[in-house]
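To whoever is on call:

I kicked off a structure prediction for a single chain this morning and the downstream step that reads the tokens threw a length-mismatch warning. I double-checked the sequence; it's 648 residues and nothing unusual in it as far as I can see. Pasting both halves so you can look.
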Amino acid sequence: MTGGQNAELRELLRRVDEVRGMSLPAGLKSDAAPDDPRALVEVLAGLVDDLERSHRRLIETNIQLVSLREVANRMVSTVDLAETTRTVARYLHRAFGFEAAFLALVDPESHGLVGTWTQGQGGQEQCIRLELPLVGERGALARSLWLGQALLFRDPQRHPPVTLPADHALAETLRQLTSIACAPLQRSQSLVPAHQTHELCGARCVMGDAGSLVPPPGADPQAWAHEREERQKHCLACDQFPILGVIGAARLPGSPPLEPADLNLLESIALSVGPVVENARLYQELRRSERFREHVLNSMQSALVAVNLAGEVLACNRAAAALTGYRAEEAAGRPAGELFGAELASYLEATLAHGREFLRRATRLRRKDGAELEASLTTSLLRDDRRQVYGAIATLVDLAPIRQAEEQARQLDRLAALGRFTSSVAHEIRNPLAGIAAGIQYLSRSLGPHDPQRANLGFILSEIQRLDGIVQDLFDITHPKQLKRVPGPLGRPLERALQSLRTVFEERRVRVRVEGVDALPSVAHDPDQIQQVLINLLKNAAEASAPGGEIRVRTLDGAAAEADAEPPGGPQRVRLAVEDQGAGIPPEHRKTIFEPFFTTKEGGTGLGLYVSYDIVRRHGGRLRVRSRPGKGTTFVIELPLESNGGTP
């Protein structure tokens, strides 16, 4: 070998020493001479070993990085803390080969740590849920968190990780640990330095304060412990608390204890895992906020529609979908005017263009089925964090129930006034009527059988009876009789009603056909009051029928009752229908026929159907009507089979 080659070889050996010195202990030198083949072989063998170790470390690092990326991707979709901690603990156990690993996150509500402990060997893995105290705790996990430092404990028996009940699933495992390392997970940006005062709550932070773990000399231990716990609770509940939780690893018997290199590795892992865990928690909080917003919006009784600057629907709640007929996903992105009508769109345009907000403005709203309804409209602007307008909100309240409630209140007021009137004058009216009727009857006995005045006296008596009936109806409305329900068939009150109206049927020349009533089961009812209901319905049917027409009284089963049938799970009912072949009830009158004083008959009082409806209602039943113009009308009496139904 020439002198030049020896010089080149010596330079290469010097560079080998420099490169190996980057990863091997200091002072390690290659003493091989350029002309010593055996020494050169040893150097080459060492280089191959170093290269193999470097490749192995590179592969392990790549695997760990890939695993961390998978953990980050998985935790984006986690829905709770338990899944987050379980994922990270498994990552530590599998990717880095720790026999036992754990992640415990701060839970401000319980003032403790919540997480997962994972351990196992030979492919056998066990995950145990952690719920650990933090306030007043002096174990390894609490010390690492409150000091904000990574700590290595070589004697866990003298410095236990945490205080646990004797029957806890981890109690036996913790007693066997040979070493444990803990590292705090810092937020990406710590909001409060150690020992500094929180800006929001005004409390002094105990982070990094060793004095918060050990009482100072001469201090009262109980007073010091109480003050420390209160400060710790205050810090944990504060939004500025800089620690997310504690990550750690442990060794079990039969394995070498953890070394400072393991602690350094754990600190590096904490720096990488911290942002992942923080992002996962932020995502979970965002999901909770979104669910809370959805629950609030969908629990509102008022319909809410949000639009952008172009008047296109951004969102609508469940009440809006029920009011308008459009589902939220169906309405999104479509112009509000196209969906709900030009009148609503004009109010929203005025709000967006001029900032004019309307309060309880009556407007017309178009539904999906084309029907229009009256609604109360309130509008307001949508603004972002910089107070820039990006849309508007329309809150709608259906005025139909309000109008109906107002009308019912007016009816109740009229009935109350009528009750006071009937109570005071019914006696005064009926006594003179009785005297007039007695006088007319006395005069009729003095007239001959063919006297022309007899017809006039008969008309006067009939009018007196009609006036007495009106007074009685008024009294029945304002002073309903107590129900005297007894079990029995409905055929008997029907038979008495038909008998009392026989003259009416003969005068109107209508027939009555009864079908299936005898087969009805026994039902608890007040025979006299149900008879009054049947008399009112049959008399109305006779008056609505043309001469030669037919009235049909029949029973209905659930299928024949159609829309009137009870929904599944409702009480069983007996249904009796009274059908006529008259001209039917106009659609505009069907919603008001059961209201007091509503009538379309000349000389009618408008009280018969109202009284009938109230009697059936107090029995716990329902009185329904179905009618088509030119096809006749059907009134259906529904009474529950339960003997205790209804209101007395």
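Update from on-call: the warning came from a stale cache, not from the record. Cleared it. Sanity check on the structure: Residues 597 and 605 are 6 Å apart (CA to CA).
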